[in-house]
Amino acid sequence: MLNIELKYNTDSLRSLSQLFTPTSFSKIVRKNNYSIIDSRLKKHIVNVKGFSRNELIKIIFKILEKQYKNEYIYKNALINKLLLGKYSLNTTTVINELKIKNSVADFVLLNGEIRIFEIKTELDNLQKLEKQIQDYKTFANKIFIVTNSKYINTLIKLYNDKNIGIIEYTDKKTLKEIKPAIEDNSNLNHEVLFKSLRKKEYLELVNDYFGYVPNIPNTLIFKECLKMIKTIDVNIFQKLVLKQLKKRKIKYPDLLKSKKTPYELKYLCYTLDFDYNEYLRLYEFLNKKI
After folding, report:
1. What is the mean pLDDT of residues 210-228?
2. Is pTM beyond 0.70 here?
3. pLDDT tens, position by position, 269-289
């Protein structure tokens, strides 16, 4: 059994939670730079010698689940339990941290509709929540707040008579729907939807719908395409945007689903969209002992 000296040390928990970031794992698989993770493991864990990094990461993840449920713990649960557990990588796409008006949506799930999951952990506050929800209404069909027991009663009072869904991430590591989300398309906005697309995506959308792309200078193309799409019924346009966004598929879905890819790192692997060799470097990193 590892001797982990961080049970009541918030600073240590916060520091270890930074292991689970795209920056850390991008350096590992793309630059063979293990220093950030190894230094933190050695700093906060006694007797790391002889244990694989995979073993240590699993232990740290369990500790964070119990004592420091940060945003990553929630996002990883959503990837595992919704995208990989309930839906299919063939029919469903997830976009992480999508800018919508003046807010950034934590987790956007796309299949037959657009659903946004806004995460409020016990480490967060609710100050910006209502503004975020108003922004998300311009883009999504359904909006869920994913939270813990600390905020459940408060959120039920705030949104009991509204279309917002509430999901509790429980101490048993399940996603429990407390209140369903009701579809609401009354606030969809052409410009917000359009700005979610990359240039290649909106040019393809315009060409598919109108049969041509304006032959004008690049400096004017965005403005002209936006003008054109505003003539489309906003509900139809949202479906066209959804179709484009769903094309953002990861390169190696089978490796993401593989048992070789730890449960604890599924969200990172999805977000970073590793190629085949990068997955191999990840496995090599995990299997090595310190």
Report:
1. 96
2. yes
3. 999 999 999 999 999 999 988
Please report which confidence band the pLDDT of residue 118 belongs to, taking 50, 70 and 90 as the band edges. Answer: very high
Q: Write down the pLDDT at residue 48.
A: 67
Show the domains of the chain with their CATH numbers.
3-74+252-287 (no CATH), 90-179 (3.40.1350.60), 190-245 (no CATH)
Torsion of CA 284, 77, 185, 212, to 10 degrees: 10
Task: Return the sign of the alpha-carbon dihedral for residues 82, 115, 132, 230.
Answer: positive
Q: Which DSSP string do the residues of the chain spell out, in sequence order? A: --EE--TT-HHHHHHHHTTSSHHHHHHHHHH---HHHHHHHHHHEE--TT-BHHHHHHHHHHHHHHH---HHHHHHHHIIIIITTTS-TTT-EEEEEEEETTEEEEEEEESSSEEEEEEE-TTS-STTHHHHHHHHTTT-SEEEEEE-HHHHHHHHHHHTTSS-EEEEE-TTS-EEEEE------TT--HHHHHHTS-HHHHHHHHHHHHS----S-HHHHHHHHHHHHTTS-HHHHHHHHHHHHTT---S-HHHHHSTTS-GGGHHHHHHHT--HHHHHHHHHHHHSB-
The average pLDDT across 168-190 equals: 96
